[in-house]
Amino acid sequence: MSRIAKQNIKVPASVSCTKSPAGILCKGPCGENVVHLPEGFDLEIADGIAKIVRTTSEASSAQWGTVVSNLKNAVAGVTKVFEKNVTFVGVGYKAVKQGQDLELFLGYSHTILFKHVPGVEIELKKPTELTVRSHNKQLLGEVCAQLAKKREVEPYKGKGVIIEGQFILRKEGKKK
């Protein structure tokens, strides 16, 4: 059995978690998140502690741990905003804000327009540094991955779009 699934989730007083037809709705000061609740699972809340329980023995224990982790992230996201830093490394690589959209200059012969995603805030610190914020951790990761895919990191010089904390495999160049 999963150890993660057995854990209780502390729900702060400023957050309300309720069961809805879409799943579990978490509302807090930073926004609201919805967590999908698969069949065979139910939500129990008592004294500020939420717990996911299996209603049938056929429900997967691996899925149980996933639902608990998603609920923890949803509760954390509505109390504080998640953020990731993105850096553009390369000659002429930069981003320019156009309203809520971003225009990316990534060494191609053309510019790339990155459309605004609802629920995600992108702050431009410098032309080569972005801070991406969201109350939804999954959506934040998806947007950062889409940005990084626009110019993947080159292994010899390390040029490209780098997400903070990302491991970059560097290769050694030719030797004489």
Structural summary, described in words:
Helix content is 21%, strand content 39%. With 176 residues, the protein is an alpha+beta fold. The strands form 4 sheets. It has a 4-stranded antiparallel β-sheet, covered by helices on one side. Strands 1-6-5 form a 3-stranded antiparallel β-sheet. A 3-stranded antiparallel β-sheet has the order 2-3-4, with helices on one face. The chain folds into 2 domains: 3-79, Outer Surface Protein A, domain 3 (Alpha-Beta Complex), CATH 3.90.930.12; 82-163, Alpha-Beta Complex (Outer Surface Protein A, domain 3). The chain has 3 helices and 13 strands. It is elongated.
Provide a compact summary of the structure.
This protein has 176 residues and is an alpha+beta fold. It is built from three helices and 13 strands; from the N terminus they run H-E-E-E-E-E-E-H-E-E-E-E-E-E-H-E. It has helices spanning 3-6, 61-79, 137-150; strands spanning 9-10, 16-20, 23-28, 31-35, 41-46, 49-54, 82-89, 94-98, 101-105, 112-114, 120-126, 129-134, 160-163.
Describe the secondary-structure layout.
Layout: H1 3-6, E1 9-10, E2 16-20, E3 23-28, E4 31-35, E5 41-46, E6 49-54, H2 61-79, E7 82-89, E8 94-98, E9 101-105, E10 112-114, E11 120-126, E12 129-134, H3 137-150, E13 160-163
Antiparallel strand pairs: 1-6, 2-3, 3-4, 5-6, 7-12, 7-13, 8-9, 9-10, 11-12
